[in-house]
Amino acid sequence: MRQVAVDAWVEHSGMLNPGGQYAAGRAARRVLDDARELIASLLDADPVEVIFTGSGTEADNLAVTGLYRASDATRVVASPLEHSAVLKSVQALGADVEWLPVADGRVSDLTALDSPAALAACMWANNETGAIQPVAQIVERAAAAGTPVHVDAVQVVGHLPVSFRELGATTLAASAHKFGGPRSGGLLLARRSPAPTPILFGGGQERAIRPGTLDVATAAATAAALEEAVGEMAAEEARLTALRDRLRAGILSRVEDVVVHTTEPALPGHLHLSFPGAESDSLIMLLDAAGIEAATGSTCAAGVNRVSHILEAMGVPERVARGAVRFTVGRTSTEEDVDAVLAVIADTVERARLAGMAG
Ligand code: PLP
């Protein structure tokens, strides 16, 4: 968490319920309103369009399910590269889903958007590869067919410029912990019309789309983090791109047979690659032992390794996908961190390849 977010959270953690009509409630309400206005101005949205949620996952669920229920149609168009928060929401609708084709890590053929649907869903940037998706074209094509669009911008907000107004999407999801805000601080931007039909029921908070008593401290901390992130964005983009490029060049010059999954245009901090012949989990464990915190593209459910659905959708062969590792550089990363990876990467990959594939 950024220090400005910690400070804002601590400062407001003792506030009362912003729904209270008494003076302390009104004071909390003012802090909430200020946070909403600041976030709206940073994302070029209307304050009424900002809905505080408990996570990016919750924002994605409210949008996908809510927009589907707001429509009479049963057809949905979606990208197969979505984070599971959108992917599983779409799969749970019981809708007639048309998945957009993928080429080079991006949705490619947008023809499916030319026929009307209850909604279309496509992320702005992919969480594993960092690949930036053609969201502006998607919104334009869908709008021509009268289809509302949900954009999962969890990886983009606070990292690249976002104008909700200019993009023209119907809904957009963000998550505070991705830009140095508190965990469990989510944002849903939702136009007045068409608005998602509520799927949670209770009080009238957040246009009744996200009922429940709001945490003023988290809202204030989210706004403070976003303000700082947006202020640093241009400089950070250049710095992270340089770090990431140095990491990629260093790995490619030290290790044979590397498959790079991150293709441009991509987020500045992402580098997703595979070391065929090695198993992701071995690589992650060896890197972790060397003090390097990398992630695998696969999820390990109930002890069973599953290849990432994103690499699968990209058509990456299983043997290659099983050796995938995602490195991300961020706000606290330095050149020394990159050098620390480069110092051990050749030996790490060699040991993981010797250990071979587990079954
Ligand atoms: N969407 C994307 C693209 C993400 O990367 C993530 C988190 O990793 C989420 C949604 C879920 O956000 P949260 O962790 O706030 O639930």
UniProtKB/TrEMBL annotation:
Gene Ontology molecular function: cysteine desulfurase activity; iron-sulfur cluster binding; metal ion binding
Q: Does the keyword Iron-sulfur apply?
A: yes
What are the record keywords, sorted?
Answer: Iron, Iron-sulfur, Metal-binding, Pyridoxal phosphate, Transferase
Q: What InterPro entries is this protein classified in?
A: Aminotrans_V_dom, Cysteine_dSase, PyrdxlP-dep_Trfase, PyrdxlP-dep_Trfase_major, PyrdxlP-dep_Trfase_small
Q: Which reaction does it catalyse?
A: (sulfur carrier)-H + L-cysteine = (sulfur carrier)-SH + L-alanine
Q: Which residues form the Aminotransferase class V domain?
A: 20-341
An example of a Pfam family matching this protein is: Aminotran_5
| Gene3D superfamilies in the record | 1.10.260.50, Aspartate Aminotransferase, domain 1, Type I PLP-dependent aspartate aminotransferase-like (Major domain)
Which superkingdom? Bacteria
Cofactor dependency: pyridoxal 5'-phosphate
Q: Which family does it belong to?
A: Belongs to the class-V pyridoxal-phosphate-dependent aminotransferase family. NifS/IscS subfamily.
Q: What is this protein called?
A: Cysteine desulfurase
